[in-house]
Amino acid sequence: MKINSNIQAMIAGSVLRSNETKQSESTERMSSGYRINNAKDNPAGMAISNRMRAQIASLNKANQNASNAINVVETAEGALSEIQDMVQRISELSVKAGNETNSAEELQAIQDEINALNKEIERIANETEYNSQNLLGGEQQLKGYSDVVGLDVINYDPDFPTGKDYEISFDKTTDSDGNVTIDKDSIVYKVNGEEGVCDIDVVNGDKIVITNPDGSTLSLKADSSLPDSVASKLDINGVGGMKIQVGSAEGQEINLVIPKISLDNLSLSGIDVREENGPQDAMDNAKKALKFVSNVRSRLGAYENRFEKAVSNLDVTTENLTKSYSTIKDVDMAEEMVQYTTAQVLVQAGTSMLAQANEQPQQALQLLQ
Questions:
Q1: Does residue 254 form part of some domain?
Q2: CB of 285 within 8 A of CB of 267?
């Protein structure tokens, strides 16, 4: 019997400290709800869960981005709906003006209404905004450039092939009032040095519309500052639009492109039903305008469907990723309660055993009596 070294007490104390540590860790897990609270709990699991948490937060923001993009599209599409109604009214007025029973006063009244509708179309296009960003004024369209001053790329579709060498040449005339007339038969359009396979149309005398077999179009506008013979290279690079981040990684984005809505793009600039053949020209241009607006609205509808699918996909991805994150990070309360109860019983038993082990040296006093 030894009194200087109480081995039994040392063993009981060591086991008690170990069980108290387990009970403390179990208490921390149940209090926080996490299986991993410190890196020492599971170093690999901590690293994986942190990456997952960051990705989940990014996906939630991407979901908000896609939802905001849907609002942008709805705002633009609502404005285009009103513009389409006004273009339809211009078409009706053009048909009405084509009746030769109209007097000069009636034609003037029709022209006044057309002018008012054109001004309202321009106003809506210039003032339709989302979060202070103009949607229909050309800021959200793809940009293109000509190397000749006076020849402007006013619009091209997102489907129009980019990154190629485009060249165009043509002859034009300019009258005393500064009105430009392009000779359609003189137009030579080349792609990578070869003549392009496409339909070429001249609208209102000064606008060239190139339509590829797939339906994608490129529109150019010439002004009076150009020489009578024009030869230009075109930079069609696909740059522009409103980029919407719909993923958690670089490059996971959708480029929202909204063409510029203007009287030139709608082919409504300069129509006058009071002139000879004015009503017929107005009817033709109104048809072109309706087609242009319908195409833009159709494209916006496709964008909206795409963003809605993106939101649905992000919801599913976030749900599954959160489930995986929970499997790694979150504690199973039922299982942890069993471990906590076990540790609690062992601590109580260890405390009792330590008390008894500390009483044994006192039995040595009986030998001294």
A1: no
A2: yes
With left for phi above 0 and alpha for psi between -120 and 50, is residue 193 left, alpha or beta? Answer: left
In a domain, 177, yes or no: yes
Domain count, the chain: 3
Are 338 and 359 members of one domain? Answer: yes
In sequence order, what are the beta bridge partners of 168? 189, 232
DSSP string, 295-351: HHHHHHHHHHHHHHHHHHHHHHHHHHHHHHHHHHHB--HHHHHHHHHHHHHHHHHHH
Contact 322, 56 (CB under 8 A): yes
Nearest Cα neighbor of 301 from 264, 241, 256 is: 256
- Say whether 367 sits in a helix, a strand or coil: helix
Identity at 39, one-letter amino acid code: A
Q: Among residues 207, 240, 273, which one ends one of the domains?
A: 240
348 and 311 both lie in a single domain: no
- 165 vs 12 pLDDT, higher one: 165
pLDDT band at 199; cut points 50, 70, 90: very high
| 107 Cβ neighbours under 8 A, 6+ residues apart | 97, 273, 274
Q: How many CB atoms lie within 10 A of CB 334?
A: 7
Burial 321-331 (b: 16+ CB within 10 A, else e): beeebeebbeb
> Both 123 and 147 in a single domain?
no
What are φ and ψ of residue 171, in 5° steps?
A: -110, 150
Instruction: Look at residue 231 and tell me whether its pLDDT is greater than 90.
Output: yes
Same domain, 147 and 234: yes
CA distance 218 to 198: 11
Long-range contacts: 170-179, Cβ < 8 Å, 24+? 170/208, 170/222, 170/229, 170/230, 171/228, 171/229, 171/230, 172/206, 172/222, 172/226, 172/228, 172/230, 173/228, 174/224, 174/228, 178/224, 179/205, 179/206, 179/224
What is the spatial distance between Cα 219 and Cα 149, in angstroms, rounded to a whole number? 16
pTM of the model: 0.80
- C-alpha atoms less than 13 angstroms from C-alpha of 174 in its C-beta half-sphere: 10
Question: How high is the pLDDT of residue 359?
Answer: 75
Domain that holds residue 29: 1-33+332-369
Mean pLDDT of the chain: 89
Hey, what amino acid is at 184? K
- Helix (H) / strand (E) element for 7: namely helix 7-32
Answer yes or no: are the C-beta atoms of 233 and 167 closer than 8 Å: yes
